[in-house]
């Protein structure tokens, strides 16, 4: 079976610095895989290459067996890859619901017709679907508020909801638990488990090791742009190279 996402000998250089160095891995449908490593290891660069934000220097990135290495971010999003970012990137002038409607328009009808009173049956269906997405993320009751007025944890959830609204096959989540308190992290964990149960394929960059070890069936570890370990949480936790480079020894 063809992997959903494949990195084949991928490198990305910024001047004389290799942010990603001869990286190869595959991601199969339905997996929730963690991508971890110290700051500067190249994790976000991997996301940028997979989503078309940056062009690779060497190698190939394939999605469903098709090369996407030279494809624009818009085409990649329409093909079924959605991502979030480390830093929240919401529109200051749009409501919670409008964020999801805009995301839907990436692969469906225009936002304008969905918001008109004489919208077609299809547009009204899309609006109902947007509200259903917000319900999953606990945001339906705040749909008419400006998104920037949500608490921090709500804004994080809205970013994932917006990504889901593009109807992706693959979700790239870049530190979704960053800045969350314990209760917000527990809520996020429940959402990720729900998405996995619904069949979404997820590549997760995260520094919360409890979250990663609990949720991910497989973990990839980067250091200085190179893959230094790949395996189950137990295998990665027991790797001396990973302990030395990133996890350290528990007190």
3D structure, described in words:
With 251 residues, the chain is an alpha/beta fold. The chain has two domains: 14-80 and 168-251, P-loop containing nucleotide triphosphate hydrolases (Rossmann fold, 3-Layer(aba) Sandwich), CATH 3.40.50; 89-166, no CATH class. Helix content is 37%, strand content 24%. It is built from ten helices and ten strands. The protein has helices spanning 43-50, 73-79, 96-104, 111-115, 121-136, 152-164, 182-197, 209-215, 233-237, 240-247; strands at 5-14, 17-27, 32-36, 58-63, 66-67, 81-83, 170-174, 201-205, 218-223, 226-231. A six-stranded mixed β-sheet has the order 6-7-8-3-9-10, sandwiched between helices. A hairpin with a 2-residue loop joins strand 1 (5-14) and strand 2. The protein starts with a strand and ends with a helix. The model has no long low-confidence stretch (mean pLDDT 90).
CATH superfamily of the largest domain: P-loop containing nucleotide triphosphate hydrolases
CATH topology of the largest domain: Rossmann fold
Q: DSSP helix count?
A: 10
Main pleated sheet = 6 strands, mixed
User: Any idea what the shape is?
Assistant: globular
Which regions have little confidence, pLDDT < 50, spanning 5+ residues? none
Strand order of the largest sheet: 6-7-8-3-9-10
Query: Can you give the mean pLDDT?
Result: 90
Number of domains: 2
The count of strands amounts to 10
Strand content: 15-25%
Distance between the termini: 43 Å
